[in-house]
């Protein structure tokens, strides 16, 4: 073909073919003739296409009614990781209300409890979402949001 472009002659004048120049070798059978006599069922391509489309629908169907909102919140939580003031929150303890000074151990326990409570609330929202319970999922997500200070 390079010769044809450079010299102006087609492969046909040399006994060959060039699909780009509009010449073809008539001795070669058309591509569709290789399927004749083949044991391949002509329905297979249609079945594969249909399966792929239905498979995409199944993936979309797996997404629950508040999956998008959960994903947005989780993204915000991940982005807040850079902020030292962001994180799970907890209720003020009775000791704190009585003006007792916290210890390192009590602070660590409170942080772990807050994280655990937040993780359970978010897991509950995801479980309700997977069950298709939109209203309950939104309530559980609101609860999880209230337990996490994004700052």
Distinctive features:
single chain, 151 residues, mainly alpha, two-stranded antiparallel sheet, 6 helices, 2 strands, elongated, disordered N terminus
**Cα-based radius of gyration, to the nearest Å:** 33 Å
Mean pLDDT: 73
Instruction: Give the CA-CA distance, first to last residue.
Output: 66 Å
* Major pleated sheet: 2 strands, antiparallel
Q: What are the segments in which pLDDT stays under 50 over at least 5 consecutive residues? A: 1-14, 43-48, 50-61
- What is the count of helical runs? 6
Shape, principal axes of CA atoms = elongated
Order of helices and strands: HHHEHHHE
Helix content: 40-55%
- Lateral strand order in the biggest sheet: 1-2
Estimated share of beta-strand residues? under 5%
Describe this structure in words.
It is a single chain. With 151 residues, the chain is mainly alpha-helical. It has a domain at 65-149. Helices cover 54% and strands 3% of the residues. The protein has six helices and two strands, in the order αααβαααβ. It has a two-stranded antiparallel ribbon with strand order 1-2. α5 (104-130) runs antiparallel to α6. The chain is elongated. Mean pLDDT is 73; it is low at 1-14, 43-48 and 50-61.
Briefly summarize what is shown:
This protein has six helices and two strands. The chain has helices at residues 2-7, 44-62, 67-79, 94-97, 104-130, 134-146, and strands spanning 87-88, 148-149.
């Amino acid at each position: 073909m390079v010769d044809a472009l450079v010299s102006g002659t087609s492969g046909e004048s040399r006994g060959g073919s060039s699909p780009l120049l509009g010449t073809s070798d008539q001795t070669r059978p058309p591509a569709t003739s290789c399927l004749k006599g083949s044991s391949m069922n002509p329905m297979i391509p249609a079945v594969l296409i249909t399966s792929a489309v239905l498979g995409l629908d199944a993936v979309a169907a797996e997404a629950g009614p508040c999956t998008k909102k959960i994903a947005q919140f989780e993204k915000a939580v991940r982005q807040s990781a850079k902020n030292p003031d962001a994180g799970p929150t907890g209720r003020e303890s009775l000791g704190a209300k009585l003006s007792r000074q916290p210890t390192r151990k009590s602070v660590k326990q409170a942080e772990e409890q807050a994280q655990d409570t937040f993780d359970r609330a978010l897991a509950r929202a995801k479980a309700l979402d997977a069950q298709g319970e939109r209203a309950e999922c939104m309530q559980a997500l609101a609860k999880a949001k209230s337990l996490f200070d994004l700052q």
